Amino acid sequence: MSPILPAEEFVRLEALARYAVLDDLPAEAFARLATLAAQFFQAPIALINFVAEDSARCQACVGVDLRVLDRQVSFCSYTVMQPGVLVVPDLQQDPRFVDNPLVTAPGGYRFYAGAPLTTPSGHNIGTLCVLDTQPRGGASTAEREALQNLAALAVDELELRRVAAELEREVRARDRLMHDLRRVTRHSETLLAIFELADLDLLPQELAEHAAALVADVTDLGWAGLVTTDGDTWHTRTVWQAPGLNPQLAERLTQPSPRGTDPSGDAVHFLDTPAALARTRPDLLEAGVCVAAQVPLGSSGDQPSHLLAVRTRPLAWAAADRVLLETVGRCVVAGVRRKAALDAAQREATFDALTGLPGRRSFERDLDARVAGEEPFALVRCAFTDFAALNGALGHVEGDVLLARCAEALGRGLTDGDRAYRLDGVHFALLLSASPEGDRETAERQAREAPARALSAARDAGLELPGVSVGTALWPRDARSARALLHLASQRRQADERRNSSAAR
Length: 505
Prior knowledge:
Elements: H1 9-19, H2 28-41, E1 45-51, E2 55-62, E3 68-70, H3 76-79, E4 86-88, H4 101-104, E5 111-118, E6 124-132, H5 141-198, H6 204-216, E7 223-230, E8 233-241, H7 247-253, E9 257-258, E10 269-271, H8 274-280, H9 282-287, E11 291-296, E12 306-311, H10 319-350, H11 360-372, E13 377-384, H12 387-394, H13 396-411, E14 419-424, E15 427-433, H14 440-447, H15 449-460, E16 468-475, H16 482-504
Antiparallel strand pairs: 1-2, 1-6, 2-3, 4-5, 5-6, 7-8, 7-12, 8-9, 10-11, 11-12, 13-15, 13-16, 14-15
């Protein structure tokens, strides 16, 4: 006969699961309690077992080796269904057990006394019981209390084990958390270091090398290299490798390989599987690489096209690793674009794109150099007057063509060491050699020859420019600083423009 399971049986099984005892071997503390129970009752057999869904499993066995019993034949299945001690003086006389094979077998059990193992939450998850092959008259109050006390000690042991297990889990969780925090901190520090690299005046290749070394330290890289494209071939140069990396692998990774699919845009290609490696870099798979990443660097020509990062262990890229590698790519690409923009700005500041003449930055640099030297010179400021109206009549395209022709004529015929500059719009400057004894009128007359060539060039194009204003200042006769010299030449040009305007009226 099997006991009828109560409605809260599922909750009882959940309580049993919290102690995680079903898969453990018998514990020494439980064995001592079972031995005490057998000695106190002078019984040949004592057990501590836990009643699961389909079985009763013994944690301690004295006098018999019963590890697992079917729940339908276990006497303890009834004990866990009641609040107190269950005593059966003669199992053959109890209708619940008269047909039980543990009773009917030769030398079967006749006496049973069991106390439930009741958890602090009130659930009976097992029993501490004693058995005899001879019937008995029952159990005294003292014996019942002793059995209950021993069962309570068994529960105390369970609670100690549970609390210890929870503490161990908490310690492991805290250790994992600390490990994760340290990893996040290292990743954050690496990200900051990469961003700081981007602010340095480094070539894209140098930026990629330093960034690869930073990333390798926190992402468990085995090797990293810069890949340059040459026609249908990839050439790779090592920028970082792990200590102890197989030298043969490092050599294979730097051998020229057939060009595969270049990473495009800003997206990093993460090759986490053998199939992905076989499609993109079969040579890496053959060399023993397990995981790789191609980080586009946004460069071309003789500059690296991408950074190749590999692992020799089958460890997929974690989310934090991906962020770092993507950041490296973005920083290097930004560095490439910034350098291109700076180069363009430098060219624009050094040479005027429309006229081909040196620009304001070149003028300021050359003026400072002349002032620092010992040779006298003339600074000429000139501007084509009323050019805006002419530009409006011709249109911007034709106006730009005319201005470029005038600028070319302005710089033509200058002696060695003399230069013409476009400062902005229709404003130009010339730095001309001058003799120590020369006067300003002579220098200005010589200075007007260049603008005159510009006006002649305009007339050759069939256009008549309203005119040009000129102002000249001599170094060191007229000023004691480059700024004062430039200011004086500008004032004289403006005065010349006013005189020309008055004469035209």
